[in-house]
Design goal:
Layout (H helix, E strand, L loop, with lengths): L1 H43 L4
């Protein structure tokens, strides 16, 4: 029983860690775009 529980825990930990890795990559483009828009707004004082 302990073996099964430890394997399930390992599987869930791997899944949990991968969720944040995937989101980090996906959010990187959004953050870069947002920063670009803020810099553009600061330069021109208007949003496009």
């Amino acid at each position: 029983m302990k073996f099964i529980v430890s394997n399930i825990e390992l599987l869930l930990n791997r899944f949990y860690d991968r969720q944040f890795i995937t989101r980090e990559v996906a959010n990187q483009g959004i953050l870069e775009r947002f920063e670009t828009l803020l810099n553009e707004y600061d330069r021109t004082n208007k949003l496009k």
